[in-house]
Amino acid sequence: MDMYEIIKKKRDGNELTSEDIKYFVKNYTKGNIPDYQASALLMAIFFNKMNKAETLNLTNAMLKSGEEIDLSSINGIKVDKHSTGGVGDKTTLVLAPMVAACNLPVAKMSGRGLGHTGGTLDKLESIENFSIDLSKGEFIKNVNDIKLAVAGQTSNIAPADKKLYALRDVTATVDNISLIASSIMSKKLASGSDAIVLDVKVGSGAFMKTLEDAFELAKEMVDIGNGMNRDTMAIISDMDEPLGYAVGNALEVKEAVQTLKGHGPEDLVELCLSLGSRLLLLGKKVKNLEEGRKLLMSKIEDGSAFNKFKQFIKNQGGNVEQIENLDLLPKSNNVMHFKAKKTGYISQMNAEEIGRCALLLGAGRKTIESEIDMSAGIVLNKKKFEKIKKGEIIASLHGNDKDKLKDTLNRLEKIIKISSEKIGEKKIIYGTVDKDGIKKI
Description:
Elements: H1 3-11, H2 18-30, H3 35-48, H4 52-63, E1 79-83, H5 91-100, E2 106-110, H6 120-124, H7 136-146, E3 148-152, H8 159-170, H9 177-190, E4 195-202, H10 211-227, E5 231-238, E6 246-247, H11 249-260, H12 266-282, H13 289-301, H14 304-315, H15 321-324, E7 334-339, E8 344-349, H16 351-361, E9 377-380, E10 387-388, E11 393-399, H17 402-415, E12 416-419, E13 429-434, E14 437-440
Parallel strand pairs: 1-4, 2-3, 4-5
Antiparallel strand pairs: 5-13, 6-9, 7-11, 8-10, 8-12, 9-11, 13-14
Helix pairs in contact: 1-3, 2-4, 2-8, 4-9, 4-10, 5-11, 5-12, 5-14, 9-10, 12-13, 16-17
């Protein structure tokens, strides 16, 4: 097989065979194909796209390039949730214990944050001594014992994806639906769960900025998952403003705990119920979504979801006292308030820019090597379309560097807009995708 002929075939708009794709992925991962040839093929794919069969074959080849986690020794149907990334997205911290409290195994491998998006592992590590480095045996034992474990992905999962993504990043070939979908799904499928619910974000703080692109990506990923014999569904959810009120690691843990105790923000609760009811449906714990929502709410109301979270933290070495007394979580030395300069309605709250403000305060990473200030971040007091009076606090900024706090205050002036009239209505879920297709709400 010749790499020149594979490039030429895709350049001319023809379909790559399964063997073509396997040859490319296997040999590029081994270092037998130079970057300039891989870049040429990626650019040909970028312009001429891939069909369903090609996308499925690419996902499978990347999946097979490394370790596939065998979770067959975990009792029952194993479920997982994946988010395409956003600001203030502490969904896993709430959703996973809710679902586990319903006696459905949640075996989750998560990632770290980079740039304006936060990572689940970073949030959990703001809890003293919490460990995300579990051996395969520990991971399986925890899920069997308490129905829940969250760990970092091993370097052996989909190594082809890591190498290809690094190349896509520097050759302007990231923004292709097939390449994005196969990248995400190769890692999710390698993680070993039986059923997956995808949370595809759309809006200013999301990778997908338009509804059309978000639905297209969701459909592609659902088709891949079901094509690989994993029950897969997706929800398209809003990320035009941060999810919930807190943005920043310890601040988000605090909000997650409050949500598990029944005092959560409307958007976070609704998203968790929407995702969770689908996980319960795929896990055959309920007969319909409404039954799932009621079961999940009962686990918050009777305290079992919060108790499951404490059990989960303890099982992975974390300091449970910080969960029982939130004042023990990391705290910033300084808090500054951003106040409204006029009365009106919040009309704009760009999630990506707010995420960048939290990054400036130290809540995220600019590079993989960056250190995170677990206490830093932003807590919103008002969100889009809500009424605000002159002098009222819109957001509180938490940080340990006063100069960065002042700089962030100035930035928020340009990010958060107030109009004299209410100009929209809040929408949390835009639609769903399953094996039967797209359903817009």
